[in-house]
Amino acid sequence: MITLHDLNLQRGSKILLEGASLRLHDGHKVGLIGANGTGKSTLFKMLSGHIAQDQGECNIPSGWRIAHMAQEVSHSDRSALDYVLDGDTEFRRLQTAIAEQDHDDGEALAKLYAQFEIIDGYTAEARAGELLHGLGFGSHETAKPVSDFSGGWRIRLNLAQALMSPADLLLLDEPTNHLDLDTTWWLEQRLQRFKGTLLIISHDRDFLDNTVQHIVHIERSKLELYNGNYSAFERQRSERLAQQQQMFERQQTQIAHIEQFVARFRAKATKAKQAQSRLKALERLEKIAPAHVDSPFQFQIPCADKTSHPLLQLTDAQLGYDDSIILKSVNLRVEPDSRLGLLGPNGAGKSTLIKSLVAELSLVEGQRTSGEHLAIGYFNQHQLEALDMNASAGLHIQRLSPTAREQEVRNFLGGFGFHGDRAFEVIKHFSGGEKARLALALIAWQKPNLLLLDEPTNHLDLDMREALTLALQTYPGAVLVISHDRHLLRNTVDDFLLIADGNVEPFKGDLEDYHQWLAQRETPTESKPADESGNSDKIDRKQQRQQAAEFRKQLQPLRKKVQSAERQVDKWQTQMDELETQLADTSLYDAERKDDLQTLLKQQSDCRQKLDAAEEEWMTLSEEYETLEEGFKENS
To answer: pTM of whole model > 0.70?
Structure first.
């Protein structure tokens, strides 16, 4: 169990956490969220032992193995495979010890080989290769030195190295930032199987929904624990904020804004699966809107007054680099009301298509025709590097529009979270999220009628992602977007294009259909020997289903005991929290309230004993359940 009590944490003069407390049980999967700059990464550094708290207690079980995903981009000359294997320090230690051991000492060598077998050392290279494949590396790339990869791919190597490390506590800081959609799905499945305690910093709501069962929200220098995934957190926070009278008017305005969009979309929705899927997502937005009413971001993306039909067109286009054709025979027509999401496996050519549309990449063959009034707003991560680090956000705007009034610039930038003096501070020390917000602000200022967005949500926190989603919904121009943020895709595009095997084609389904398409594509069909009637596979599958059903039936009483024990833990923890809140009342320590104090202290002592007993029972039952479940998997 991880316990933080009365914790203070600060960086320089900025207080990040003050009097914060938190308790996380073994095996919990937890999402850590909060606005940029609230201390999420700093808290991770403390948990991993790289820095110490300024005050209070941080208790992590001794002997726990802690793995974390490094954010630094390494320039190592080690091969990608060796770099990932380095994540398993015990494997490397035993490997070195075996190599250095005197081979005449048979007993010592036998002990080392026995330990090596216990940690599955003989399968380490295969497991590392599986991680690299899952994260999108080709088999020919495993021998390449780390220094040959770009920054985003090196971050993937850091993620693979963290996943390679046997860990009781795994800390992942923005693991999906440099992943595409199919790799994100792979990572979700991997983390769902992780047995230890997992803490994830992420601004991807779907990723959090599919990987965690608890949310810790950093707000006003405190740590607030919510049961459930991110969607459950939004509902709970919506209910709490809805009760605050001062938020009511702003909440109603935002809900009305979303309801108008839902009504407009409903009027033109067809029976197509994608349209219906998006309609359901939009209706869900109405329920979660209150969870974001205190967001510092509120902006719209204006559109050019004039437009063209079509805005942009590719005809019989061959796309690629020099003589290397990546996409062939591309015919694409972008109309003023086009809202397209680009889907496709890693490396299939999604970014190549957008670069060709924006004319950053010349066509190998074919024709690119732009409308007379085409005004493109293009976003990709490289544009963050093109910003002038010695200029302010305001100066960037003024360079685009020298006659713009300062107050107009300040008002505009305020919607993107640059308030007060921040709008005219040099951006050199801005975070990645702040630079991404500025790049989006510069695009919006120029009033494009076609937005080409390549992973626009990287580095953006959840509130900014929600604000961008709302802005794109009401944007009247055309949109083409590549994103691994499924929430953004569901709520901003009408149709999908599938980029795969050198082709660009309409995709008729929704994101779940695309997920199934990927799974079928990556699962090879294997022929198995059958009996004379050809029914052996059917019999085997039937027996497996029967065995699984029987096993679930046997486990059900124990599962109920585990659930009941966990409810008891939650019950006594809630009572303990209430007692601690009462004991924090300073008037309780006045002389005339001595009896009240003694009563509460006794109740606290009794409650602590019951909580400890409940936790012990819960842990014992959980271990028994997991042991039985693991035994069944091994025998099935």
So the answer is: no
